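Obj: model holo form, ligand = flavin-adenine dinucleotide.
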Amino acid sequence: MNHYDVIIIGAGPAGVAAASALADHKRVMVFERDLWGGTCPNRGCDPKKMLYRAAELKTATRDMQPAGVRGELTINWPELMAHKRSYTSTVPGGTLTGLHAAGVNTRHGELEFFNRHTVALAGDLFDADDIIIATGRKPAKPDIPGAELLKTSNEFLDLDQLPQRIAFIGAGYVSVELANIAAAAGADVHIINRSETILRGWDERATATLKQAMTNAHIHWHDNIHLESVAKSESGVWLHGEDGFSLNVNAAFAATGRSADLGIDLSPIGLEMTAKGLPVNEFMQTKIPHIYAIGDAVDKTQPKLTPVASFEGRYVAKHLLGMSEPIAYPVIPEIVFGTTEIARVGVDLQTAKADPDRYQVLDQDVSNWYTYHRTLDHTARVATIRDRQTQLLVGALVVGDHAEELINQFTLLIQQHQAFDPQQVLFAYPSASSDLSYLL
Ligand SMILES: Cc1cc2nc3c(=O)[nH]c(=O)nc-3n(C[C@H](O)[C@H](O)[C@H](O)COP(=O)(O)OP(=O)(O)OC[C@H]3O[C@@H](n4cnc5c(N)ncnc54)[C@H](O)[C@@H]3O)c2cc1C
Ligand SMILES: NC(=O)c1ccc[n+]([C@@H]2O[C@H](COP(=O)([O-])OP(=O)(O)OC[C@H]3O[C@@H](n4cnc5c(N)ncnc54)[C@H](O)[C@@H]3O)[C@@H](O)[C@H]2O)c1
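Output (holo structure tokens):
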């Protein structure tokens, strides 16, 4: 029997953050069954945004045509993929080296629970005082005949060649981000959406702007389509839906959400998952107090994002080292890297508009402002929300170029409860941040 203070299952952003924060104080063992580093740097945020860079240039080039920019920008997929791999190929090794340098022990492979303190891997037993489950989520496929023929974001982000005609099933984050990349790189892209809504829960005007931008980029929408089956075709797959819908594509990708199914039998320890993951209390403990869950594997209301996963990893480390306060999340910014960017943080715009006594909303079409006139971005819009009583910023929504820069500025102001005094701060000019005094 090998004894550790803490066993961590899963080496994604959540597990690695916990391991790094514990390494100096506890004897830690991390188990990973696939790629060290987890989804975000291997098959999620980071590779996606490397491919997105080429798509951004394509959109910018198209936008600037009225300003005399000519010529069709073309993307060589194998070379773009090689660029992506020049980063992702370093991730598993780099993560492992980092863990070892910090003094963390690691094992690779499929483990099983032996009892509430012990896991088994390849015939060896490992026990610990505390266990942290940080197993993330994996792509889910719709429950229809032929679903095994569908690929997922994992395969898309590592395609050697870009198929000519592609379908994405679903209209959430993965679909809108990957469809944009595929269309920019020259594929004929179709989105099969079971409603007319995209990115459910986001501001409808913002998602309508994004949807239009995608249509302008020649992405085809098939709204209100209930897919019934997938079948092999000579050149790829047939997608069949209700009311005689059928579409033949070279490859179809399920982007219908992610499943937190651990792939580990939890019955030996008496834990159960909901459809959204493992329930935890305000200390990230499961119903077995020495077994914690963090990151995407948790059933929670917070968005399942990398900074949230890492925050929870650091929190649990502090809790194990003696801190007794419950977890208190900072405000969580979200961003969609689509054909135009949309980002939000804090109080939701719809909530704010419904409560004018409490919130003051400044919702501006900024597409004719210098910053966006310069780049001919017709989608640009910024809404900020202040608390009427304190006059402090409590929420924001940004559409268009520079959304990632502005949303982080707004996040800082909200988190630090800071009043913004344009008389006292100078921003480099011209820049999106130098518009801040007119946005608040
Ligand atoms: C296409 C895509 C794009 C995304 N883009 C963004 C973005 O732009 N910004 C953002 O913030 N978030 C983004 N995300 C979400 C982000 O990737 C996740 O929120 C984040 O990776 C969660 O971290 P985690 O550590 O909880 O889980 P993961 O990163 O999924 O890591 C879990 C690890 O546990 C391992 N594991 C699972 N089961 C076992 C087991 N039984 N034994 C051992 N190991 C196991 C897995 O192999 C994996 O390595 C994206 C996700 C996807 C799919
Ligand atoms: N920029 C980012 O931060 C980013 C990017 C990508 C992924 N992510 C993370 O990954 C998660 C998963 O993204 P996602 O796009 O796979 O999920 P999602 O929940 O965002 O969207 C799923 C989509 O699939 C549809 N759908 C679900 N089941 C279906 C079915 N059976 N048939 C047809 N359509 C169906 C839904 O209506 C929805 O449109 C996100 O929630 C987020 O946590 C974040």
